[in-house]
Amino acid sequence: MTSLDEKNNKEINIDFRSEILEYSLIVEGAINSLVLCYLGIIEKSNTKLFGNKAGISFKSKIDLLYDIDVLSKEEHNDLELQMIFRNKFIHSLECNSFLVALNQLDNGIKNRFKKHMDDSSKINNEYSCKESYGKIYITNLNIIHKKIELKIQSVDDKCDLIKLHMEKEIRIKDMSFYFIRSLLESIEEIALQNSENKKILELTTDLTRKCVKYIDSTKVDKELTELDMKLNKLLDKDKINEYLK
Question: What residue ranges do the domains of the chain occupy?
Fold first, then answer.
């Protein structure tokens, strides 16, 4: 590398810009995953907006996440702040430091940036600015990962809800039939012990008939059959995937 190349690299600050770009690409990828997660999109390659080709912008993605209450205003602002600096360093050759970039930004952006500094008076110190930007990056990344974990937990909870509901229904049915079976056994035993007592025999016969009728009714009851059909439709695999989005 010639001395001129070294001078140009120093003026452009390639290493610095590369670090900023790396941070940005990591956060952009994480935000894309977060959007896919909350929209219930499993395969991004099948989408027009979230695949490897250019789709909606990072700004549009974080605006969407804010609109659907995934991101708070403060979280949205921090992500936007990181990208404001990213755009400055990537698209402007003269922006080769935080101090240069801050001089080109309005006071509102500067004040938002100061909130991430341990000492806001160090806004004119390049190292302090770089350290604060690193904190913003870590904060943003942690927030995104936390949001994804919350969504995964929410899906797991919905799965458990459906599963527990079905297990409860099965348990209730099992208990009902267990009760009927136990009752029939008791009736049969009483009938055998009182085979000569006409009234008891009539009673046990009547109870047996009613128990059998109840069991049969669960198999042919029209309303119950219709409810089962509706439930089966609602528990279709595609339907369940919709519920879990």
Answer: 3-155, 157-243
